[in-house]
Amino acid sequence: MMAMSYGYVYVAQVAMGADPAQLLKAVNEAEAYHGPSLIIAYAPCINHGIKMNQAQAEIKKAVAAGYWQLYRFNPEAEGAKLTLDSKDPTADYQEFIKGENRYASLLRQFPTVAGSLFEQAEKDAAVRLESYKKMAGKE
Q: Of all residues in the chain, what percent carry a pLDDT higher than 90?
């Protein structure tokens, strides 16, 4: 959001396992843009508690759960500068995060507060998606 607020930076958020075509489109647009470009990619690691040969499936789950949104912000675009490539979530957000070590360990260590933190994280992701929709003119 900070880089987009400057108005002259190409910004894309991508996830190869969720949408390889969107990733390629973002890379091509970033390379063609005559100015600074920033591509932010979701990349799980072994510390998330997944087998690394399943990384692309985990990336797809992150997008399906609404944990990670796909978009492209192109300052040279006509009309809305932001293209929201993600669809509304189709998977359970909290089920997704509980499948990763960092959240599962939080739940084990602090069971009385973890649930409310998970709910807040899910609400924050929904608010973030709505703000992207608004920026993309998809209200």
A: 91
Backbone angles phi, psi at 104, to 5 degrees: -65, -40
Average pLDDT over every residue of 54-68: 96
Amino acid, single-letter form, for residue 25: K
3-state secondary structure 90-130: CCCHHHHHHCCHHHHHHHHHCHHHHHHHHHHHHHHHHHHHH
Residue 100, C-beta contacts closer than 8 angstroms, at least 6 positions apart: 44, 48, 49, 50
Measured CA to CA, the distance from residue 2 to residue 91 in angstroms comes to 28
Please give the structure tokens belonging to residue 110. 């602090």
- Which of 81, 57, 76 shows the shortest CA–CA distance to 1? 81
Per DSSP, helices labelled H in the chain are 2-5, 20-32, 55-64, 93-98, 101-109, 111-135
